[in-house]
Fold this sequence. Notes:
Layout: E1 3-6, E2 9-12, H1 23-27, E3 30-38, E4 41-42, H2 45-58, H3 67-80, E5 85-93, E6 111-118, E7 132-139, H4 154-165, E8 170-174, E9 180-183, E10 187-192, E11 195-198, H5 209-221, E12 226-228, H6 233-237, E13 241-246, E14 250-257, E15 260-261, H7 269-281
Parallel strand pairs: 7-8, 7-14, 11-12
Antiparallel strand pairs: 1-2, 1-6, 3-4, 3-5, 5-6, 8-9, 10-11, 10-13, 13-14, 14-15
The structure holds N-(5'-phosphopyridoxyl)-D-alanine.
Amino acid sequence: MSIAYLNGSYLPLDQAKISPMDRGFLFGDGIYEVIPSYNGKMVGFGPHIERMKNGLAAIGVQFDWTTKQWADLCQQLIEKNGSGNLGLYLHVTRGTDSKRFHAFPENIPATVFAYSFEIGPEPVADKALAKKYRVAATRDLRWERCHIKSIALLGNVLHFQQGYEQGYDETLLFNADNQLTEASACNAFIVKNGTVITPALDNAKLPGITRHILLDILRRDGSIPVEERDVSMDEVYSADEVWITSSSKDIAAVVQINGTTVGNGEVGDVWLAAQTLYSAGKFNY
Ligand code: PDD
């Protein structure tokens, strides 16, 4: 049983209880993060906490934990839950009100919840071991604030479920102009003629930390050209490689979209080069 954190106390996860009047429960009114930790070493702690702070500011939750307080919480979760491979889940809601009323209540403390869950072994840059992802693709029907890592994930859940029910591992999303946005729980990339291309950030995409680290590593290395720009679904279907990225997956190679084979249907050479660089550099963030 994972040891969780709730509002100042550490306790077994099944003993962590919140009020049904919590605005996270009633309205999905909160922000979350997932930070991967391998044998006690976190990936992207700084950028994850910065995104958490930006999200809380974007929705007007007054919550002023310092980066040091977040670091202590993460360290405690790692120590109390064994230092294997963990996803550290952090969650802050606007707090518990006495009534259900849409406007922000004044002067209620935020609810802070965190726990850890086991994740698989660290992804390795080895084509033979890489999982080949088969994904669906559908029109992105979420809201226009996807840059905020809101706990209100119903739009994402419905898109994920749509692909899942058809036996797919993820669902790629595209907007009304047939441009790729991201996936239901990942950012998305294509590779064409050796160039790595990913949709530019705006309010239709989460600014993924894996995306951020990967782009930074690739740019610093300089051997693989990188572009951030609009990507049409026609480009996606004719790409040499397609990848999805997230904290729990690193870089995952997509070999099929809605039944159509991507490239030669195999995990690609650019994936291998990129995952090699990512594996070597990710703990520096
Ligand atoms: N999902 N886009 C969406 C919609 C996501 O939910 C996620 C992460 C990403 C990738 O972000 P990052 O690289 O920071 O993990 C992109 C998390 C892992 C989740 O909801 O479990």
